[in-house]
Design brief:
Layout (H helix, E strand, L loop, with lengths): L11 H21 L3 H26 L3 H31 L13
Helix pairs in contact: 1-2, 2-3
């Protein structure tokens, strides 16, 4: 067992590095994948990294405003997931595949 003097102190920089890694994974997922469901999950990853950043700054500055904004972001993420899944179901019913390249056929 480690003594308290050797315990790892998790600071703000650790949270910011983790959030930036998660955000980069989400960005790569949105840019490289053509499946709508994978793109929605990647957008959720990006929103979660923003939430992590806000909560970390809120904790280290002793200000609750960042944590309150996270609730609004979570609400937006839930609405985005509902609308995105509804679009995915519509595209799957029409084209029998959930691929982003079929959006050009939805013009009318």
């Amino acid at each position: 067992m480690l003594s308290p003097s050797f315990a790892l102190q998790v600071g703000l920089m650790h949270y910011l590095v983790l959030a930036s890694i998660i955000f980069c994974i989400g960005t790569i997922g949105v840019m490289l994948r053509r499946n709508l469901l994978v793109m929605l999950m990647s957008i959720e990853l990006m929103l979660n990294s923003v939430n992590l950043t806000l909560v970390a700054f809120s904790h280290f500055t002793n200000n609750i405003n960042g944590q309150l904004i996270v609730f609004f972001i979570m609400t937006i993420a839930a609405a985005e997931a509902a609308v995105g899944l509804a679009l995915a179901v519509f595209i799957f019913k029409k084209f029998k595949e959930v691929n982003i390249r079929f959006f050009d056929r939805l013009k009318g």
